[in-house]
Amino acid sequence: MSIILLFAAKATGQNMQLIDSLKTVANNVSIDQKIAIYNQLGWQYRKLHPDSSIYFLNKSRLLIDESNNLELLPECYNFLGVAYLYKGDYLFSYDYHEQAKEQAFKQQDSLQYAHALNSLGRLYEGTAAYDKAIEYYDEALIYFQNLNDNVGLAYIYSSLATFYQSQKNFVRAEEMCKQGLELRMQEELWAGVAFSYLELAKIYNDWGKPDKAFTTLQSAQKYSQQVTANMVLKAEVNTEIASLYRQKGEYAKAQELMNMAQSTAESISNQNLFMKVYLELGRLNYDLKKYDEAIKYDKKVVVAAEKSAFMKELREGYLNLSKNYEKKGDITTAYENFKKYNEIEKRFLDTEKARLAQQHESRIALETRARENELLRIEQQKNEELIEEQNLRNYALLGIAALMFVLLVMFMIYSYRRKRDNLLLTQQKDKLADINLEKDTLMNILAHDLKAPFNRIYGLCDLAKIDKGQEEQYIKMMQDMSSSGLALIKNILEVSRLETGEVLANINSVDLQQLFRTKIENYADDAKAKSIDLKSDLKLDSNFVTNQLFLERIIDNLISNAIKYSSKDSAVEVRAFKNSNALKISVKDHGPGFTEDDKKNLYQKFKPLSAKPTAGEASNGLGLSLVKTLVDKLHGTISLSSEVGKGSTFNVEIPELHR
C-alpha cells in the first residue's frame, strides 16, 4: 500500500495512466489497500468527472464501515467535499468537509484536519463570509507550518492569495501566490506550478496589469503542457489567455483558444470549468457583436448556475443576457434579465451565508443537545449516588445522636476556634489571590506587547526569502526589532517593581518633545501601510517629571490602537501639551467608534468589543486595560469621547510627579 500511496501523492492533476494502474491494482489487494486506492481514484476523477469521483469515494466509505478502519475516513470525507464542489453542490461539499474536520479531530489527524479547514475557508469565501474564511485559513496555516508540509502550505497560500485578491489587497495576494509557487517548484508539482501561475495572472489582470498577466499566463501554459493528462488545467489556462486576447481586440486568437477550452468543458462534468468557459464565450461573442451566439452561451450558464447554486455566475449570466438583449433592441427582455440580476445582487451575500450558517448552527445545536443529555444522565447518576450516601449518613447520625449531645459543648468551642482560623485563612487567601492576579496581568501584558515585534520579524523573514538582494536591509530591520523586543522585556520587568515599592527609582525628567516625536516616527510606517495620515500637534517646550516607562507604554498603545482600528485613507491625530503641572494627551481616530455596550467593558481584560482591526491585525483585548492600569499608577485620568461610525478620541491627563 505504501508504494501506491507514494505514487498517488506525486501525481499531478487528472492522470489517466495512474487511474488505469490504480483500477488494475485494486482487484488483488486487501480491504485497507482498496480503501486507499478508491480514495485516490476519487481524487483523480474530481475535476474531469465528479460523479465518478463520488462513486469511488462512496465505495471507499462502504469498505471503511465494513472493516471499521477509520484511519482513512477523514481523507475520504475531504475528497468527497472537493468532488461535490466541482459538481456544483456547495451544501454537500460543506457537509463532507465538516465531517472530515470532526473525524480528523477525533483521530488526531492534523494533516486532514488542516485540509478540511482550508476547504471550509474556501467555501465561506465563495459565499462572501470573509471573516469566517480568514479564521479557517489562519488556523489551517498554523497546522501546515507545524507539520512542515509543503504541499499543504502551497494549498493554503493559494487560498490566501484568492482571499486577498477578493479584498483588492493585490500586494498581499501576489506575495501569498508567489510563496505557494515557490513551494510547488521545490516539490516539482508541475500541475500545481501551472495553477499558481494561472492564479498569479488573474491577480495581475484584476490589478490592472494586463501585460504582466499575459507574460505570467505564458508561464502557466508552458508548465501545463508538461502535464499532458490535465485537460481541466489546460482549458482554464486557455480561457484566461483568450480573455486577455479578447481585451486586446485580438479576436481570432481568442476564438482559437476558446474552441479548445469549449471542447474540454463539454466532454467532462466539471461545472466550475463549464461556467468559466461559457461565460468567456459569451463575452467574446458580445464583443464580436454576435449577440444571438452570446445569448446562447449565457443561457447555458444561467441553467447550470441555477442547478448548482453558483450565485456569482448566475448573477453575471443574467447581467450578460440583459446587455445582449439591449443590443438587439429587445428592451423588455433586457429589463426582465436585469431585474433578475439586480435581485441576486441584493441578496447574493446574505442568502448563501444564511444557508451555510443555518446548517452549521443546526449541527452545533444537535451536538449541544447530545452533550446536554449526556451531562443530565451523569448528573442524575450522581444524584442517585448522593441520595444513597445521604441515607447511610442519616442512619449513622441516628446512632451517634446521643454522643453528639454530650459533645455539643466541646463542638461549640471547636467551631468558634475554627471560624477564627478560617477568617485568618480567608484573609491570607485573598492576599494571595490579589498577588496572583497581578502576576497574571503582568504575564498577559508581556505576551500582548511582545507579539508585535515577533510578527514583524516573521514577516521580514518571508520578505527576505522573496526579495533577494535586500537581505542586509531586512537583517538590519530585524536587529532593530529584536532590540526593541529586548527593551520591551526590560520595561515590562520594571512594571513588576510596583509590588516591591521601587516606583520612585523609575521617575525622572523626560524630554516630552523628543519622546513624542520619536513615538510618532516609529508608527509612521504602520500608518503609511494603511494610507493613514498620522498628524501631530505638540506644544511641549519643557521637561516633565514622571515615570518614562509608563508614559511610553501609554503613548504606544493609544497610537497603535488608533492605527489598527482606523480605515484606509483616514487620519489619526495626536495632540499633547503641558498645562500647569499636568500633561494632557489626546489621540483621535476616524474608525468605527464604540457602542454603549463597548464603553461598559472598555478597560476590562479580554472583553470582546464590537470594533475589529481593519486589516486583519492581531488584537487580544489587553491594550486599553494596560493603558488604564498605567494611567492609574501615575495618578492620572483617562476618558473617551466616541460615537458609532464617527471615530473615537482618548483623552489622558497625567500630573507631574515629585522625585
CATH architecture of the largest domain: 2-Layer Sandwich
Main sheet properties: 5 strands, mixed
* Coarse structural class: alpha+beta
Q: How many helices?
A: 25
Instruction: State the helicity in percent bands.
Output: over 70%
The domain tally reads 5
In terms of DSSP E residues, the strand content is: 5-15%
Compute the separation of the termini in Å.
77 Å
How many beta strands in the DSSP annotation? 7
The CATH class label of the largest domain is Alpha Beta
Radius of gyration, in Å, reads 32 Å
Under CATH, the topology of the largest domain can be stated as Heat Shock Protein 90
Task: Give structural notes.
The chain is of the alpha+beta class and 659 residues long. It folds into five domains: 1-105, Serine Threonine Protein Phosphatase 5, Tetratricopeptide repeat, CATH 1.25.40; 109-228, Tetratricopeptide repeat domain (Serine Threonine Protein Phosphatase 5, Tetratricopeptide repeat); 230-239 and 249-370, Serine Threonine Protein Phosphatase 5, Tetratricopeptide repeat (Alpha Horseshoe); 428-501, Helix Hairpins; 505-655, Heat Shock Protein 90, CATH 3.30.565.10. It is 74% helix and 7% strand. The chain has a five-stranded mixed beta sheet. The protein has a two-stranded antiparallel ribbon with strand order 1-3. A hairpin with a 5-residue loop joins strand 6 and strand 7. Helix 21 (512-522) runs parallel beside helix 23.
